[in-house]
Structures are given as structure tokens and as C-alpha cells.
Amino acid sequence: MSRKLKITNSAIVLIIMGTAALLRFYHYFEVPFTYDEFSAVLRLNFNSFSELIENGVKLTDTHPAGVQVLMYYWTRLFGIEEWVVKLPFTLFGLGSVYLIYLIGKKWYNQTVGLLSSAFLASLQYTVMYSQIARPYISGLFLVLLTVYFWTNLVKNPERKFYLNSLGFIFSAAACAYNHHFSLLFAAIVGLSGLFFIRREYLVRYIISGVLIFVLYIPHLNIFFYQLNVGGIEDWLGKPSNSFILKYFGFIFNFSVYPGIVTLIIILLGFFFFRTDASIKKESRHRGDLKPLYPYLLFASWFLIPFIIGFLYSRYVQAVLQYSVLIFSFPFLFFVLFGHIKEQKPSINLLMVVGILIVNIYSLTFVRKYYQIFYKSPDREILRDYEKLKSREQNAIYIIDSHPKNTNFYINKYGIDTGFIRQESLSGISELKSILEEQSKTADKLYLGALSSNYQMTIPLILDYFPNLIMQNNYYGATTYIFDKEKKPTSFRDTITYLDFEKGTYAKWNGVKAELITKEISYNGERAYAFSDETEYGPTYKISLDSIMTHKNNFIDITVRARGISEMDGAVLVATLESNGENVYYGGSDFKDYIISDSVGQRWESIHYSMKLSDINLNYKDLMLKVYIWNKNHQHFVVDDIVICRREGNPILYWLVEPIIQPKNQLATK
Fold first, then answer.
1. Looking at residue 426, what DSSP letter applies?
2. Residue 91 within any structural domain of the chain
3. pTM of the prediction?
4. 413 and 466: one domain?
5. Of 483, 512, 543, the domain-final residue
6. Are 137 and 89 in contact (CB under 8 A)?
7. Residue 554 DSSP SS3
8. Which residue in 414, 420, 544, 663 has the most C-beta neighbors within 10 A?
């Protein structure tokens, strides 16, 4: 006679841990380094601990020394293969999944612990950072370990007080050495204990806090040095007022499905699974903390680091990112699910399986995590280069990537270096010179570029290789292949085209009929001649929202100009205005595009591109305005002013943004 399989909470924990391990170790040997990891790994080649601290941490980093020291000794023992470097952090991630279960069980019940653990097991937030060897998932583990020992101290101080105090001291000190925000969180936890610890244990608890500070004293000189040097505002912008909403989107995989499941469980908790009055009464009778206190505690733990980071970033130095909030975000689940009473294991299993299925679906199919994250921008740029190089010798190859990261993969995979490194070029004029010369014999051009690539690169390439035949999108990078065929291309739409032929300039303002000349033109019969009395040329205005399909678009503006010797001081200008106020200004000097020795004897193409993803578009009714500014009142001629929308990479900023779904929108002719 077969025995009925018994469902237990312990078995559910094993299911959660197994799922967490599967999601983190899936194709583990293919997980590449991120840019942050490269930054850390390439700062490990020192001969001594003192050199590491001075040159690898103090002078070149903004983080505490703990993780860099761990990586230094770990890689000396086991090497710098990607999976080897990541392994301790992946284990930290698995440990975090289990710790949140234990903490939830201690503060509430096993149901709350299981629900919280299921989310930590399957959200991109924790899966991704478990595969990144940086101080985020390690900090989450240390924070949860600190809270675990702290919980034992405040809830049951009579049980192994000194052992739990020792665990609290060392885990909190490790938080301080891990990251400044995990230090902040440990401090918040420590201060919270002053309100929760029983009075007879208060002195011993304060002594524990003093010992944590004593353990951190050796690091104080590094802390104050980094504080004086400043933060990361050269690349990290100040957070907008909508940051918290975007952060919630990031937590729930930028998908409605995890949000719906969360809402269903919350509502079930209120209407069917809610802790009843008798349990609350019994808890108060036993002398436990009042039921409302844990909610206030965990809500404050979630909110205080965010508020401090937000205010510091807005008024001092930008530091707020999703990554630094990972230490406090798990306690959100205690706020969301803390009202749910203990359920039968069968109900727990049903809710946990629902959470895991929905989160895995959104991770895999909505976020396309394994398709996107497993493709390193620097590595894929080189792989696409190798594919084309193997079948096409008569081509120009240009790569714009991190030199040290690129060299790492070149050495690892034995890739040849028969390409032009764009970062080594002095500017747009040198790139134009190379294109002008090599395009005479080359049939194709390959460009592999990071998101930081100079925005006028592609418009300039299109002057010589006008047809895009391949575009591969990666997070943080895009690769392209162009050839010389002149045919319509799908990645650029013309918004407007002004060639000064009769009737073509109806939508342009400031076109002076007396300046239209038939003596010379780039195309057709007419052009526009600037004189010393003409400061501003024709102007075009259009609503930005009417022409962009998504914020990763580019707006490419091109003008043909002649009279080079007299054009010093002419600028192709693009601005954005909101309710008449100028909120963005950019432009290209004509002289930057001059490479010909026969100045004034030929037409040159002048380009300016707006990379919309790098512009603050949080304004109402944005209007794009394009014009030519003859600031030095020179004589020159222009023709064929073209404004185009170029489709950008929809996953360029995938790490911190949803995958972009472009609007179906026709170009404005």
C-alpha cells in the first residue's frame, strides 16, 4: 500500500533553494564579466597587500576594501576565470535566500519566510547580482546575517546572548568593510536595537556597538579619503522624482505578472489568511512586541536608506543606484506579507510555486535575462568582428570599447587586432580622414561600439557606406555592418528635407527668398547663401514626441556646406524647448568636418546627432528646434538640410530599464 506523500515546509524550502541554485548556475561557465567586475579584476595585479590597499582601493576605488581584498586572495588561489571569480558571490546569493526565510520565520511565521524567500530566489534583482562579483550580493548576505543575529538579541536575549552578540559584531563589521550603504544599513539596524533591546541587556548591547566601531577603525583613513575625493557623478546622474517608481519596476522584473501575484497574495492575506485577534491577544499576553512595531521597523529599514541616498544624491553627490538599495529591499516583503498568518504547507506550496513560476517566466521571457545578460558587450563586439573578418577581408573594421576589457578577451581567445580602435583617434576629423581614404577600396565597414560611442559616428559613416545590412543589439553596445549600396534603409526615417527647390521649405521659418541662389548647389538647382548680414539661417520646429518612437532614438541632422575657408564660426544647432524655455542645447562646428586641402572647393557634410537617451526629457511639450548659426557673420553656402530619426538600440540600458517597445509611428515628411 503506497504511502501518501507528505508536504512539509522543509520540503518547500528545498524547492526554493533548488530553484535559486538552478537560476544562478544555469550555463554558469558562460556568464561574462560586467564592466564593474573588469574594473575590480584589473585592479588585483599587485605584489603585496599594502600595494593593493594603496593603489587598488584607496586611490582608484569608491568602495571599502573588503570585497577587493577577498577577490585578491581568492584569485591568487584559484585564478581569474569568470566563473571562479563569481563563485563566492553566487554562494552569497544562495545564502541570502535561506537567511531571509529564517528571519521571516522568527519575526512572523514560516509562511512569511517562505514567500519572501521565493521572491529572493527568482527575481532578476537577486539572480543577476548573485552572478556579479561586486559588493552587492555579498552585502545583502552580510546584512541579512547581521539582522539574523540582531533578531536573536532583541527577541530572545536570554538565549546564547554572547554567541549571538559575537555574530552580530563580526557580521556588522563585515558590512562596514563591504560597501558604504551596507555600512549605513548596519548602523540603522544597530540604532534600531536601542528601541527593541530589553533594558537589562542595553549596556551589553551598546558595548557590542562600540566593538563594531573598534573593528572598523583600521579602515577610517580610507573612508575619509574616499569621502573627500567624491563620488561617481561624472557618469551617474542625479535621481529624478520618479526614481522610486522606476525602482519598484526594477524590483518586479519590469513586468506586471510578479506585481499581480504580489497583489493577489496581499489581498488573500487580508481577506482569508489574516492574523486573527486571538493570536494578537495571545502575543500581547506573552509579552511579545506589539504587532504594529515590526511593520514600522521593516518599513523604516526599507525607506531610510532610500531617503538618505536620494537626498544625498540630489544635494551633495550622486550615489543612488538600484544596486546600493539591494541591502534594504528584502524587508519590503515583510511589510507586504507580514499580515499573513501561518498557513498549511499545501497552501504555502501553492503560493511559493505560483511566485516561482511567474517570476521565472518574467525573468526568462519578459526580461530575456539569459539571452541578454550572458552576452558581454566587449566580448560580443569582438565575436561579431571575428565573424565578419573570417569571410570578408576587404572591409574597414572600427571598434570602440573599453581598451583593457578588450585586451582581456583578445588575450583569452587569441583574437587578431586588425581593427581601428576609435578611442585612439583624435576626433571626428581623423575618423573622417580614415573613411575618406579607405572607403576608396573597402566594400564594407564594421562598427562595434559601446553606448558611449560618439553620436556622430554613424551619420559620418553613412556618407561613405550608406546602407546598413546588419545591426546586433546588446545591453551596453551595438554592432553594425554597412556597405555601399544606395537603397532605402529601415533604421532611419526622414522627418524633413530642405533642398531649397521651389515649394520645399513651407515648414521652415526664416527662409529669405533673396538668399536662395541658383549659381551653385549640391543637388538640384538652388542653394542658400549666407552673407555677413545673415546670423541665423532657416529654422525648423516640431514636437519631439511626434517623431520619436522611444527614448533610445537618435535625431540625426545633416547639412551640405561649401565655402569652407570662410566657415570658421558656423554652427549646426539643435535645441529642445519646453514652454518657450531652452532645456537643451547642442551643435557641431562646421570646421570640425573639414579635412580637404582644397578648402572652399567642394561640398562637405556637417552632422549633428542628438542621443535622446542621454538627455533629460522629463519636460512637458518638448519642441525640437534646428537651425544654422552664423556667429562670425561669414560667407558660405548650404544645401540639403536633412533631419532624420534613427532607431536606437532598445536594450542598450537593459540592466536598469525595461526592454523598449517602440511606438508604431510614421515619419513626418
1. -
2. yes
3. 0.89
4. yes
5. 483
6. yes
7. strand
8. 544
- Asked whether residue 287 carries a pLDDT value surpassing 70, the answer given is no
Those residues with Cβ within 8 angstroms of residue 650's Cβ, 6 or more apart along the chain or in another chain? 473, 550, 552, 659, 660, 661, 662
The CA–CA distances, whole Å, from 28 to 17, 88, 363, 385 equal: 17, 13, 16, 25
- For the chain, the first-to-last Cα distance in angstroms comes to 78
The cell numbers describing 315, all together, are 544635494
| Whether 383 and 350 share a structural domain | no
Task: Identify residue 179 by its one-letter amino acid code.
Answer: H
Look at the alpha carbons of 367, 369, 371, 373 in this order and tell me if their dihedral is positive or negative. Answer: positive
Residues 6+ apart with CB under 8 A from 205: 153, 165, 193, 194, 197
* Strand pairing report for 467-474 and 477-483: antiparallel
Residues 312 and 276 in one domain: yes
Query: How far does CA 561 lie from the centroid of its chain?
Result: 39
User: How far are the Cα atoms of 33, 180, 261, 526, 605 from residue 557, in angstroms, in the given order?
Assistant: 36, 44, 46, 20, 10
Q: Show the cell assigned to 489.
A: 534603409
CATH number reported for the structural domain that contains residue 630 in this entry:
2.60.120.260
pLDDT level of residue 228 (50, 70, 90 thresholds) = confident
Residue 223 predicted with pLDDT over 50: yes
Q: Are residues 268 and 331 in the same domain?
A: yes
Domain count, the chain: 3
Q: Which of 623, 620, 619, 588 is nearest to 606 (CA)?
A: 588
Are 479 and 561 in the same domain? no
Q: What is the CB neighbour count within 10 angstroms for residue 495?
A: 22
Pairing of strands 581-589, 570-578: antiparallel
Q: Would you state the cell numbers that stand for residue 586, as one nine-digit string?
A: 547642442
Average pLDDT over residues 220-237: 72
Mean pLDDT of 459-488: 90
Q: What is the DSSP string of 339-391?
A: TBPP--HHHHHHHHHHHHHHHHHIIIIIS-HHHHTTS-HHHHHHHHHHHHHHH
C-alpha cell belonging to residue 74: 581568492
| Coil/strand/helix, residue 418 | coil
**SS in 3 state form for 325-353?**
HCCCCCHHHHHHHCCECCCCHHHHHHHHH
Look-up of cell digits 536595537: 193
* Separation CA 494–CA 486 (nearest Å): 15
**In this structure, is residue 347 part of a structural domain?**
yes
Exposed/middle/buried for residue 363 (C-beta within 10 Å: 0-12, 13-18, 19+): buried
Q: Which of 323, 345, 372 is the last residue of a domain?
A: 372
Q: State mean pLDDT over 554-566.
A: 85
Kind and range of the H or E run holding 115 = helix 110-122
Could you tell me if 365 and 242 lie in one domain? yes
Residue 231 has pLDDT above 60, yes or no: no
Burial class of residue 566, CB neighbours in 10 A (0-12, 13-18, 19+): middle
**Structural domain includes residue 606:** yes
Same domain, 501 and 447: no
Alpha-carbon radius of gyration of the chain: 30
Residues 320 and 426 grouped into a single domain: no
Half-sphere exposure (Cβ direction) of 233: Cα atoms closer than 13 Å: 12
557: containing domain = 492-646
80 in any annotated domain:
yes
Contact 626, 530 (CB under 8 A): no
Tell me what the mean pLDDT of segment 120-149 comes to.
Answer: 97
Q: Which residue has the cell 565655402?
A: 563
Average pLDDT for the chain: 88
Instruction: Provide the percentage of residues in the chain whose pLDDT is more than 70.
Output: 92
